[in-house]
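Entry:
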Amino acid sequence: MYCTNCGIDLGPAAKFCSACGNPLAVQATTVKARDWDLHVNVLGWLVIAHAALVGALGLIVLVGGVFVRKLLVENPQLLLDHADPNDLPPADVITIIGPASLLIGIFFLAIALPSIIAGIGLLRYRSWGRGLTLVLSFLRLLEFPFGTATAVYSFWVLLSQGGKRFYNDKAARAEA
């Protein structure tokens, strides 16, 4: 170890320079423990926010599709303004827009509901919340990019050794 002020060679355990008296920087030997409580809370809110966005998308598809269908059925001239009359879709296709968007919207809402429940379970440190979040995170891997990022973060928080130990301890105390 060398003094940063005068450059003299000092022993490894020196705290001050013997020549100039300059205090030497103490190297940190302890590693700060991760704040697992913060990570679990962030994860819980991320899962809920992601589910809320998926649910909002479901509501938009549900309402928007019904609105578009009604608009096209009542105003067929909207399709005729800029298109060749021979290129128009059959009337059956237009009438399917409403029920199809209804089913797709309900599907998105059905996907969002378990994620909101999982996020609440995480925030309340319930043991089932961890398992449900892991299962849903596996499915969320396909929802690139936000679902994938949330899933990877879920795996890191809930499957790492420290995170798993922390969550299980907190869940045992919360459910006791």
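Residues 36-175 form one domain.
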